[in-house]
Structure formats: structure tokens, C-alpha cells
Specification:
Elements (H helix, E strand, L loop, with lengths): L1 H21 L8 E12 L3 E13 L4 E13 L3 E16 L3 E16 L5 E20 L2 E10 L13 E9 L2
Antiparallel strand pairs: 1-2, 1-8, 2-3, 3-4, 4-5, 5-6, 6-7, 7-8
């Protein structure tokens, strides 16, 4: 089931980016597409790959709402982990230069320790609030840079090490 879900998200991501490439750039289309891709490396052979596709709809010229997904694979010398997240988002744009936003994500986490074989499955809800800066790339495409804070984060209860996350991504159709 996890493989089918993962494959579906990858196909959705490819579909979204292919739609971006074929868009005509007209202002009458209210749909937006985008997302982010992340790669991380660290000690103990740590590796992380993350894909976050998003589809939005311009409710007004300044307000956008939609759905965002998140798939993350992590591994090191001690464990392997897969995390899926999905939920709604809303962004408000100021003069196509700055934005404030909210993302509600429901995460499903599967982790396995390599030596003991112990499996750990859990879920967590996150409500990210924040904002940032947008850089125009031309033809209604933008790079977005910002910071978000999970207001539901609790230090000794969350699977995440901090409530703050960088927000880096691309969006086409604004």
C-alpha cells in the first residue's frame, strides 16, 4: 500500500510539473502548481530525500488556497524512516513580493531500527504559520523563501526536533 501511495504522489508531482511546462501563461487560469525538493546529508551516513508537490487555486488575486503533499525518506547507519504528509494550505500575497501563509499537515511516520528490527509507526499533526519573500522567475513563476513555525510542536512529544522549518519552493500560475 505504501509503495502505491508513494508512486501515486510521484506521478502527481510529475503531472503537476508537466502541466506547468505546458501552461500558456494566461492570467485567466486560476490554478497554481509547484512544490519543493530537498536533499540532506549528515553524519553516520545520514541521507534524506523529500518531495513536496502542491496544487492551489487563486481565490482572489492575493489569496490562494490548495493542498500540499509531502514524502520524505531518511536513513542512516541506525534506522530507516518514511514519512507521508498531506493537508490544506493558504497563502496571502503582498504585491507579489511577500507572503504569509498557513499549512495544516497530517504526517504518517514509519521507522525501523536496522540492528534490532524494531518498527515504530506513528502520526502527528502540524500547523505551520509563517511567511517570506517571493522572487519572480518570469511567466507567472516565482521562487518562495520563508520560515514557518509549527504552533502545535511540543518539545518532548513531537517527532520533529524543532518547530521551525525553512520554506523554500516554486510556484507557477500566480
Amino acid at each position: 500500500m505504501k509503495k502505491i501511495f508513494t508512486l501515486s504522489l510521484i506521478v502527481l508531482n510529475v503531472f503537476c510539473f508537466s502541466q506547468i511546462a505546458m501552461s500558456s501563461g494566461t492570467q485567466t487560469n486560476r490554478w497554481t502548481f509547484g512544490g519543493g525538493l530537498g536533499v540532506g546529508f549528515g553524519s553516520n551516513s545520514y541521507f534524506n530525500l523529500q518531495v513536496s508537490p502542491r496544487v492551489g487555486y487563486k481565490i482572489t488575486d492575493q489569496l490562494e488556497g490548495g493542498i500540499i503533499g509531502n514524502v520524505s525518506w531518511q536513513k542512516d547507519n541506525y534506522y530507516i524512516s518514511t514519512m507521508f504528509g498531506v493537508g490544506p494550505f493558504a497563502n496571502y500575497y503582498f504585491a507579489r513580493t511577500f507572503f504569509v501563509g498557513a499549512i495544516l499537515q497530517q504526517y504518517f511516520i514509519n521507522s525501523k531500527e536496522k540492528f534490532s528490527g524494531y518498527k515504530f509507526n506513528t502520526d502527528e499533526t502540524a500547523l505551520y504559520l509563517g511567511g517570506g519573500y517571493m522572487q519572480s522567475l518570469g511567466n507567472n513563476a516565482f521562487a518562495q523563501f520563508g520560515i514557518m513555525y509549527n504552533v502545535l510542536w511540543k518539545e518532548n512529544e513531537s517527532i520533529f526536533s524543532t518547530g521551525f522549518i525553512p520554506s523554500i519552493g516554486f510556484v507557477v500560475g500566480l
